[in-house]
Amino acid sequence: MASNTTIRRADSTDAETIYRFICRLEGEDPTREEFDSIFLKNLEDPDCYYFIAEKNGQSVAFVGMQIQSVLHHTARIAEIIEMFVLPEHRGDGIGELLYWHTKDIAQERGCKFFEVACNNVRERALDFFSKMGFEKTHCKFTERL
Fold it and tell me: How far out from the chain centre does Cα 89 lie?
């Protein structure tokens, strides 16, 4: 399972790794300049978290989470924004480690809700989040501008 796996907070030296993970997650390559600009800015935001999972010293997964106060919940919420596990490590329990790690932080920060949005084509991810206790309560629409 997830033995020999550690989770650590990402820093600026992880930009290349996370960029490659995002490219694989989305199936497209965002411009590196825009990626770096957003990533470095988000690292300074106390409500934005990025974590790297390492197995035997190799980066194998990451998760990004943001915390915000929203009117429709009248509360602070934490949302997993991005999550990626290398295909050869899926099923090893690494996603669960990242889930529990971010959920603990959400609870420590006083969040009343923990949310995730997931593309409908990622059936395995949808099953994972359902297994972890998330309920499908919303439908998210996206329009590219």
Answer: 16
Are the C-beta atoms of residues 25 and 95 closer than 8 Å to each other? no
Residue 136 lies in a domain: no
CA distances from 42 to 64, 71, 113 (A): 10, 22, 21
At 71-84, the pLDDT tens digits run: 998 999 999 999 99
The pLDDT value recorded for residue 84 is: 95
- Residue 100: give the domain boundaries: 5-131
* Residue 124: C-alpha distances to residues 109, 120, 131 (Å): 29, 10, 10
- Reported pTM: 0.90
Tell me the CATH number at 121: 3.40.630.30
Question: pLDDT by residue (tens digit) across 78-123?
Answer: 999 999 999 999 999 999 999 999 999 999 999 999 999 887 778 8
Task: Give domain status of residue 113, yes or no.
Answer: yes
